[in-house]
Structure formats: C-alpha cells, structure tokens
Predict the structure of DNA (cytosine-5-)-methyltransferase.
Amino acid sequence: MDHDYTGKRIPVSQQVAKIGNSVVPVMAQKLVEVNCPYLKSRTRMENPCMDYSEPQNRFA
C-alpha cells in the first residue's frame, strides 16, 4: 500500500495510519459472532433488573 489509485506514492506515516485503522471484514464478523451470538439468532437479551427484596441488591 505504498501508492494510491493514481500511482502517487503515499508517505510511510500515512501508510501506517491507514493500515492501523483498518479491520479486515472477516475478522470483524468473527469478533461479533463470538461476542454477540444473540445478534445472529435475532433474539434480544433481557435487560438486567434489580431485586430489592433482600438487604443486599443482586441481579434477578
């Protein structure tokens, strides 16, 4: 990635910035599949609610 579509050379600092900010689409997809499996099933996660019936609060 040392030149743009017109053939003009890109400085190393801009090359690093462009590559550093990129995410391969397949990797992004895999990260979402692993961390958010409920999105694929099209079901929503229930919102956590607090149970105040005991002295110490806990998630119900």
Q: What stands out?
A: The helical segments are 12-20, 25-35, 37-40. Residues 25-35 form the longest helix (11 residues). The chain has three helices and two strands.
